[in-house]
């Protein structure tokens, strides 16, 4: 699990639904193109995204012990990597936490978000420890 961010779309504000952003993204267009070219590629999406031949989303109301429930469990395990990546990004760049607000115009906020993602990937490439790992190794003097 390398948690590298491969693509980002910061054109829309935080209140915009993920599915709308996805439907208006270049990657969605590219995935459609690959599908029409008979390429077998898939992305994982949560339940907020529409099911597509190239977008695997969980089943709603899967019956207990059904194949759909097994699929949902496997899907959930795979999505943990994605959620972990978001958590690591927000932990390293605290200005991205939901409780924080970037007090800039949307265009500047988009640049900050993209910069944080680029810096996140650079930190991964050069094995810079996450902030939580940095602080757990610090010895605090007592007494």
List keywords for this structure.
143 residues; mainly alpha; two-stranded parallel ribbon; 5 helices; 2 strands; disordered C terminus
> What Rg do the Cα atoms give?
19 Å
Helical segment count: 5
Q: What general outline do the C-alpha atoms trace?
A: globular
Beta-strand residue fraction: under 5%
What level of helicity do the residues show? 40-55%
Major beta sheet, strand line-up:
1-2
Low-pLDDT parts are 136-143
Total beta strand runs: 2
Rounded average pLDDT: 88
Distance between the termini: 41 Å
Could you state the order of secondary-structure elements as H and E? HHEEHHH
For the sheet with most strands, the description reads: 2 strands, parallel
Q: Could you explain how this protein is built, in words?
A:
48% of the residues lie in helices and 3% in strands. The protein contains five helices and two strands. It has helices spanning 18-23, 26-36, 67-92, 106-125, 131-136, and strands at residues 43-44, 55-56. The termini are far apart. Residues 136-143 have low confidence and may be disordered.
Topology of helices and strands:
Blueprint: H1 18-23, H2 26-36, E1 43-44, E2 55-56, H3 67-92, H4 106-125, H5 131-136
Parallel strand pairs: 1-2
Quick summary:
This protein is mostly helical and 143 residues long.
């Amino acid at each position: 699990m390398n948690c590298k961010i491969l693509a980002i779309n910061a054109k829309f504000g935080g209140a915009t639904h993920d599915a709308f952003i996805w439907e208006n993204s270049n990657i969605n267009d590219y995935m459609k193109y690959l599908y029409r070219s008979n390429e077998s590629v898939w992305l994982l999406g949560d339940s907020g995204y529409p099911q597509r031949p190239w977008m695997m989303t969980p089943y709603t109301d899967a019956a207990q012990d059904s194949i759909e429930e097994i699929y949902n469990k496997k899907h959930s395990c795979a999505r943990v990597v994605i959620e972990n990546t978001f958590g690591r990004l927000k932990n390293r760049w605290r200005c991205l936490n939901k409780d924080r607000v970037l007090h800039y115009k949307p265009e500047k906020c988009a640049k900050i978000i993209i910069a944080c993602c680029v810096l996140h990937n650079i930190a991964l490439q050069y094995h810079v420890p996450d902030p939580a790992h940095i602080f757990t190794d610090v010895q605090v003097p007592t007494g």
